[in-house]
């Protein structure tokens, strides 16, 4: 048999095997695999009988394989190896069918070790361990949180005013001319101290009427009922009281009235207004010789030991304020205790705000009417809540809020929380159990340390 016949025979056998492989793959629906190994030996000098060739084919059928290996010898008696795979694996790259070199096996082992190492790191990427020295250096503060009554604060701009209940306006009760002053602006005066002396034409007539009525009444009392009739006695007494009352109404003091009869007639019409209580002269808008009308303010006296503060809030802000509700008045960093005394039920026509009036103690005399201050209204929570300082809250990479919890000494884990109400400088949080140790100061430092270590500080 020549070489052409042998090649033809080889091709025929290979084609038959391919047809058998396709049929077997379809019958077993990708669940059975076929592996045919055929070894054909051919030499250039002699050809074995066909039966011998067939006996050299080794056909092995396996359930877990869908490939065929053909091995034969070419004309040069070199061994040839053919691997046939079904259509299901026809597109596998040549690199996958080739055996791996020792270098590739080493790389594969390194990748496996790297993946295992990453898996181990993922288990610890939610936190960090800090030494006591680093915690002390960063001034990290940790507190076991407990439900407590918290206070919320509402801010409002305000103005300091005089206490309308402890101040009064000094004014003449009849048209007068200012002759002289006895107290200056800002001066602290005592009750009964002279403030200003005035002159009035009406006062001249009132003093003259009093002098006449007083003289007549003294004469009637001296004569007695045996000489003066009862009607004359009543008339004299009534005229005296009317003249006396008129002077009192004009603001003349009892001492000044008693001295009228001793005064020279040239001093008639003069009278002096005195301080009715201790206080400070807050206003004295007048000059000597000025004519002022009845009721026109000459001075304003006020006791600054307690002042009013009027806060302006939006009419749409609902505040559950009650009498004596606590508040804090702030001026240049200094605070004063205050309490709510009144709440306006009308809207200011100019500012369109609602007025809340407070009473503030000013024992050190550092507050004065006209100052602009800040008012912080304080509201206590009805129940105990868990709250942490605002600085304890950190944003996670996906935008959620979280805090750092100390599971063990020096070991910190990031835990997501839900935010509740704003309570002054604190914030209500939900999602943590009682007595959980939370970083209340230095949370940003802990987050930065985790970030430097290449970790993700987000706890899912």
TrEMBL record:
One of its GO terms (biological process) is copper ion export. Pfam families: Beta-barrel_RND_2, BSH_CzcB, CzcB_C. It comes from the Bacteria. GO terms for molecular function: transition metal ion binding; transmembrane transporter activity. Residues 88-111 have a biased composition (Basic and acidic residues). Residues 386-445 form the CzcB-like C-terminal circularly permuted SH3-like domain. Residues 1-29 form the signal peptide. Residues 47-71, 88-126 are annotated as: Disordered. Residues 307-378 form the CusB-like beta-barrel domain. GO terms for cellular component: membrane; outer membrane-bounded periplasmic space. Keywords: Signal, Transport. This is Efflux RND transporter periplasmic adaptor subunit. PANTHER family: CATION EFFLUX SYSTEM PROTEIN CUSB. SUPFAM superfamilies: HlyD-like secretion proteins. Belongs to the membrane fusion protein (MFP) (TC 8.A.1) family. It comes from Shewanella gaetbuli. NCBIfam families: RND_mfp (TIGR01730). The keyword Transmembrane does not apply. Residues 169-303 form the CzcB-like barrel-sandwich hybrid domain.
């Amino acid at each position: 048999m020549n070489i052409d016949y042998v090649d033809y025979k080889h091709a025929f056998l290979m084609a038959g095997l391919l047809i058998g492989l396709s049929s077997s793959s379809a019958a077993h629906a990708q669940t059975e695999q076929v592996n045919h190994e055929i070894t054909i030996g051919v030499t250039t000098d002699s050809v074995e009988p066909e039966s011998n060739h067939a006996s050299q084919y080794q056909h092995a059928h396996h359930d877990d394989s869908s490939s065929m290996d053909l091995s034969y010898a070419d004309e040069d008696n070199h061994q040839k190896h053919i691997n046939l795979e079904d259509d299901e694996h026809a597109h596998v790259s040549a690199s996958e069918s080739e055996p791996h070199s020792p270098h590739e096996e080493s790389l594969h082992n390194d990748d496996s070790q790297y993946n295992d190492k990453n898996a181990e790191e993922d288990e610890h990427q939610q936190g960090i361990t800090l030494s006591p020295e680093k915690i002390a250096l960063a001034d990290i503060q940790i507190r076991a949180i407990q439900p407590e009554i918290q206070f919320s604060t509402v801010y409002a701009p305000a103005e300091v005013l005089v206490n309308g209940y402890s101040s009064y306006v000094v004014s003449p009760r009849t048209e007068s001319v200012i002759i002289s002053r006895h107290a200056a602006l800002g001066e602290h005066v005592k009750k009964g101290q002279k403030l200003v002396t005035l002159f009035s034409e009406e006062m001249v007539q009132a003093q003259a009427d009093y002098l006449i009525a007083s003289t007549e009444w003294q004469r009637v009392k001296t004569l007695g009922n045996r000489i003066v009739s009862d009607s004359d006695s009543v008339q004299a007494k009534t005229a005296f009281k009317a003249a006396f009352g008129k002077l009192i109404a004009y603001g003349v003091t009892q001492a000044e009235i008693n001295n009228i009869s001793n005064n020279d007639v040239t001093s008639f019409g003069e009278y002096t207004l005195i301080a009715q209580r201790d206080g400070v002269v807050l206003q004295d808008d007048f000059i000597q010789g000025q004519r002022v009308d009845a009721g026109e303010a000459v001075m304003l006296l006020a006791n600054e030991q307690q002042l009013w503060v009027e806060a302006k809030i939006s009419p749409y802000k609902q505040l559950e304020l009650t009498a004596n509700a606590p508040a804090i008045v702030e001026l240049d960093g200094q605070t004063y205790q205050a309490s709510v005394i009144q709440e306006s039920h009308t809207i200011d026509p100019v500012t369109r705000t609602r007025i809340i009036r407070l009473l503030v103690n000013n024992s050190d005399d550092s507050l004065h009417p006209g100052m602009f201050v800040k008012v912080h209204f304080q509201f206590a929570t009805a129940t105990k809540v868990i709250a942490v300082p605002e600085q304890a809250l950190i944003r996670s990479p996906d935008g959620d809020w979280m805090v750092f919890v100390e599971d063990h000494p020096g070991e910190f884990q990031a835990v997501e929380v839900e935010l509740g109400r704003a309570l002054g400088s604190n914030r209500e949080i939900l999602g943590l159990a009682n007595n959980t140790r939370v970083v209340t100061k230095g949370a940003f430092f802990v987050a930065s340390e985790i970030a430097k270590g290449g970790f993700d500080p987000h706890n899912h």
